[in-house]
Amino acid sequence: MSSNYLLGSVFLILILTLMLVWLSMFLLHMRDFLTGDVPFISTRKRVVSQVIDALQLSESSILYDLGCGNGSILEHAVTKIKGVRGIGIENGIIPFLLAKIYTRKLSIEVIRDNFFKTNISPATHIYVYLFTDVLGKLAPKILQECKKGTRVVSCDYEISDWVPIKIIDTTKKGDKLARKLYVYEI
After folding, report:
1. pTM (2 decimals)?
2. H or E element: which one contains 97?
3. What is the block-wise mean pLDDT of the chain (186 residues), using blocks of 10 residues?
4. Which of 39, 74, 131, 173 is most buried, by the most CB atoms less than 10 A from its CB?
5. Which of 178, 69, 36, 54 shows the shortest CA–CA distance to 125?
6. What is the pLDDT of residue 35?
């Protein structure tokens, strides 16, 4: 009877281990579906006004936020400067839904799509909070599709092979995120 008990215990542990592995793989797959390929990191509230100032928006500006998350940059831009048209591109379903809810009463269009596949040629201004490797892949698209004079502001990460026209230090003691803004002009 003890060998049957031992065999049953081993079998149960094996089944539980397989279920745990399957659940882990499923959750990893769902993470990409729910949040997109780029993790959702919201720009710190204290930095948002600095981002808007760095963008130098005007009444005729068309601001694209690539990987817009919850849409906070777009929300602040269109409420601070009348006439700004905000367009957010977000691939993750949860941040996309948050952006749709938060910006529903504003002149902001939030599109659920992969920003690598979206036409960004109308942009006069672009905001990004993306990792360096993603920015490296995105840079040729921006250069190819956007007009000369398009202003690009990147939070925390530089665009390789581009020279910023300005670097804004936003660091506060103890900050690990939103420490620098890199400003570029095509």
Report:
1. 0.80
2. helix 93-102
3. 70 80 64 55 83 97 96 96 97 93 95 96 97 95 98 95 95 72 97
4. 74
5. 54
6. 47
* Helix or strand holding residue 99 (H, E): helix 93-102
Question: In one letter, which amino acid is 86?
Answer: G
Extents of the domains making up the chain: 1-35, 45-185
What is the C-alpha to C-alpha distance for residues 67 and 95, in angstroms, rounded to an integer? Answer: 9
Q: Distance of alpha carbon 58 from its chain centroid, rounded?
A: 23
Adjacent-strand bridge partners of 87: 64, 109
Tell me the two tokens of residue 79: 């409420």
Ordered DSSP codes for 15-73: HHHHHHHHHHHHHHHHHHHHH-SS---PPPHHHHHHHHHHHT--TT-EEEEET-TTSHH
pLDDT given at position 103: 95
Q: What is the pLDDT of residue 34?
A: 47
CA–CA gap between residue 10 and residue 174 (Å, rounded): 48
